[in-house]
Amino acid sequence: MDKVFIEGLEVDTVIGAYDWERGIRQCLRLDLTFGWDIRPAAADDLLDKALDYAAVAAVIDRFAQAARFELVETFAERLAAELMETFGIPWMRLRVTKPGVHPRARGMGVEIERSSS
Description:
This protein has helices at residues 39-44, 53-66, 72-87, and strands at residues 3-15, 26-35, 68-69, 91-99, 107-115. It is an alpha+beta fold. The chain has a 5-stranded mixed beta sheet. Strand 4 and strand 5 form a beta hairpin. The protein is elongated.
């Protein structure tokens, strides 16, 4: 299986369980890997046969702008479902890092893998 990835995409969203977090936007860093057959796009050198990174990033941005979750786990699960449905992605891995959660860690978060089968 071929893989397409987006690494280190930063989005601002409302995320957190504490009252003070509910009134601010915080940065999440996303690392995504998608199972995707690149051969049709490569054969004809056509964007419409590829997984369009810009279109994926635009959906992620819209999702993050509208999201209001307490848990990073919920953000990850719902975003994965949205991307798989929107683009027909058969498999993906999503890592969501919330920087600044702990003073001795660069970030904390979750990593999930989902498939359509």
